[in-house]
Structures are given as structure tokens and as C-alpha cells.
Amino acid sequence: MATRTDTKEKILDLAEALMREKGFGEFSYAHLSSELNIKNAAVHYHFPSKDDLGKAIIERALQRFITWSHLDSIKEMRPKEKLAAFMEVYYKQNLDYSFRLCLIGSSAAAFPALPERMQQEVKGLAETILGWLAQVFEEGREKWELNFNGSAKAMASVFISTLAGALQLSRIGGKSFYTTTVEQLWNQLLVKH
Hints:
This protein is mainly alpha-helical. The chain has a domain at 58-189: Tetracycline Repressor, domain 2, CATH 1.10.357.10. It contains ten helices and no strands. The protein has helices at 4-21, 29-36, 40-46, 50-69, 72-75, 79-94, 103-109, 116-142, 152-173, 175-189. The radius of gyration is 18 Å and the shape is elongated.
């Protein structure tokens, strides 16, 4: 028999997958309960409103990123290795699963329609990731590993926008569109010795 925690995690997993594949507004509690073979009341028990569910999806993603970025193995990497590790995780979380969009990209597409509490969580997730990337870019420039013009914060925005945009367009052009775009970005960033 599944525990309440298992059920809650299964709801979150499925809701996140649907959000990445179709968008937050494109599924209902009925979809979740039907797919998971549970009662609609079970979904409402864990997440009284869809706003609560959306907020929980983004909070969990933020926690995953914080946990990952604070791993000793990540903190000990050189800047270009951190960037490569981020790109690998991004690829695996999205392209390895039938061209899912990242949560920031999926949320951005429907941002005006998202509940206000969820909008705040999405902003927090984006700011946290952009802040981490900006630090990596600044450190990479200081150590002569990464080359770019402008501020590290602006480069972080360009970087995540390129990944998210390439991911979205890969739905049309296939995985090769994504990999070609990201390889080009990577080649432009690396310092040539």
C-alpha cells in the first residue's frame, strides 16, 4: 500500500511532467487522478488548489537545483566544468524525456496566466539559477576559462535563454537543433589558448 508521501511525490512527478510537456494550464486534477488511478479527493488532500500544486512543483525544482549546486563535487569543479555539468543536467532532464521544456521555459510561455503565488516561485527559481550562472561566468572570466563581452549577469541571461530557446525549437528541428546550437554557444564561450 502506498504511503501518503509516495502518493504526494507521484502527483508531483506526474504534474511536473505534464507541465513540461503541455503547460500548466493543460492538465487538471482529473487527469492526474485518472493517470495515477487514485481518487480526485486524494489529489485535493495533498494540494487543495492547483495554485498549491504549481507552487509545490516550482519549490521542489528550486530545492533540487540548490542541492545539486551545493554538492561538493560541483563546488570543487573549475568554472567551465560547472557550466558543462549544468548543461548535461539540463539536457538529461529535458531532451532525454521526449522534448520536455524546462520549468522556466514552460512557465515563461504561460506566465501571465499562472497564479500569482506560482509566478513568485518561478521568479525565485529563475533568479537563483541566473545568480549561480553569473557567479560561474564571473569566476570563469577571472580564471581565463570563459570569454564573453559584457557583464556576467547578462551572459547568464543569454546562456539560459539560448538553452531554453534551443530546447523549445528542438521540438520542431529535433535533438540535432539543440545540440548544434549549444555546441556553438559553448565554442564561443571557451577561451582559446
